[in-house]
Backbone:
């Protein structure tokens, strides 16, 4: 038994997540006024692969107001910086891995008031960052007769990946909630996809338009549902598809990507 396995069996001690690989920003490019593509590079990315669409990667960022990246250590329950503070760790979709260039692209929503959102706009080439992962993605059933994808802006990278991965002949409904018309972009081509953009009305809680879109959609009995976005909103989607529509649990994957009013400083998870 490895020391990691034996750690996992001690109550109160959590298994240490995969190590952080130090990398740096190679380039930053606006995709829309609401989305920034950040290309990460460095020898530590050698061998980094992502097998499934809509997977996750954790980014360790310099603490707000600093440009230096301090590596945290695992205390058996969470990552902590040497001074006892929690590090700035956020989760993103590993969008594109280029094994030849040894780069990884992530796309970060500019939502006006978060460490990662600000870092994506301010950080330029050479900025230090570290990544851990990938975490598991979506195990898609290639035999399924239809799919429904519902996300908010944070789920645009994952939704695009899913569209690229889904069988070409399978019908796909895609619903994307955007907080601003400028967030709209071209998703990857799929001959049997219908893509609907839903603008969140001013003042409405995040996810309201996404929930309404799912509630108003045609869902044939065997449809597979993938939904991601604000935690409370996707909880409503979960209840709707299971309780109101009676979809079997295995047919829907619903993931909370962020919590309204709460910073995603979830070091250790
Ligand atoms: C598996 C997974 C994949 C993800 N993939 C992506 C991705 O590819 N791109 C991406 O941008 N995000 C993605 N996210 C969501 C991202 O991790 C969160 O939005 C994160 O909170 C952003 O960090 P921040 O430092 O900008 O804001 P935080 O410091 O975490 O939050 C500060 C404040 O902003 C609010 N906030 C956070 N995110 C948003 C938002 N999008 N819109 C409006 N308000 C917000 C919070 O509620 C809080 O009040 C993913 C999350 C998961 C779990």
Residues:
């Amino acid at each position: 038994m490895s020391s990691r396995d034996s750690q996992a069996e001690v109550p109160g001690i959590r298994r240490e997540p995969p190590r952080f690989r130090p990398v740096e920003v190679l380039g930053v490019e606006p995709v829309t006024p609401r989305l920034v593509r950040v290309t990460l590079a460095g020898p530590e990315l050698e061998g980094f692969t992502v097998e499934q669409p809509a997977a996750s990667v954790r980014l360790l960022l310099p603490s707000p107001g600093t440009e230096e990246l301090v590596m945290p250590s695992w205390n058996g329950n969470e990552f902590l910086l040497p001074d006892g503070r929690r590090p700035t760790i956020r989760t993103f979709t590993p969008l594109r891995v280029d094994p030849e260039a040894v780069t990884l692209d992530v796309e970060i929503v500019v939502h006006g008031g978060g460490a990662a959102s600000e870092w994506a706009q301010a950080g330029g080439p050479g900025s230090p960052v570290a990544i851990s992962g990938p975490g598991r993605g979506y195990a898609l059933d290639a035999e399924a007769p239809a799919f429904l994808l519902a996300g908010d802006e944070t789920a645009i990278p994952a939704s695009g990946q899913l569209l690229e991965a889904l069988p070409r002949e399978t019908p796909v409904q895609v619903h994307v909630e955007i907080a601003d018309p400028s967030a709209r972009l071209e998703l990857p081509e799929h001959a049997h996809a219908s893509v609907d953009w839903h603008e969140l009305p001013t003042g409405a809680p995040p996810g309201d338009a996404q929930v309404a879109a799912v509630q108003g959609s045609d869902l044939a009995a065997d449809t597979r549902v993938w939904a991601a976005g604000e935690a409370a909103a996707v909880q409503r989607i979960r209840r709707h598809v299971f309780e109101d529509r009676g979809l079997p649990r295995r047919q829907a994957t619903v993931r909370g990507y962020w919590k309204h009013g709460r910073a995603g400083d979830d070091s250790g998870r």
Remarks:
- The chain has a mean pLDDT of 93.
- Residues 56, 90-93, 107-109, 111, 113-117, 153-154, 157, 257-264 surround flavin-adenine dinucleotide (CB under 6 Å).
- The longest helix spans residues 231-244.
- Residues 5 and 15 are 8 Å apart (CA to CA).
